[in-house]
């Protein structure tokens, strides 16, 4: 059985690659990344829009944010009153 050399970063960096040898692989990877990005953007936008319409359309987002802001204000007010010992109004 022949001994194999482990592949290390130094071995990979010292291999005599010319940039012309790497261009086809880089082009294929770039095109694949662009296709995945476009497909993801298209399908995720439609998926999020479908879920948004199922939960009340555009009204659900701002209403949820407003409810979270009110809850946050109530929590911070109760924490401040417990620290200072004064009741909230």
Based on the model shown, name its key terms.
89 residues; 3 helices; mainly alpha; single chain
Structure description:
This protein has 89 residues and is an all-alpha fold. The protein folds into 2 domains: 25-54; 57-89. It has 3 helices and no strands. It is elongated.
Please state the structural category: mainly alpha
Gyration radius (Cα, Å) is: 28 Å
Mean of residue pLDDT values: 78
Share of residues in strands: under 5%
Spans of 5+ residues with little confidence (pLDDT < 50)? none
Number of strands: 0
Helix content: over 70%
Overall 3D shape: elongated
Tell me the count of domains: 2
The biggest sheet amounts to: none
Q: What is this structure's SSE topology?
A:
Elements: H1 9-14, H2 19-54, H3 60-84
Can I get a quick summary?
About 75% of the residues lie in helices and about 0% in strands. With about 90 residues, it is mostly helical.
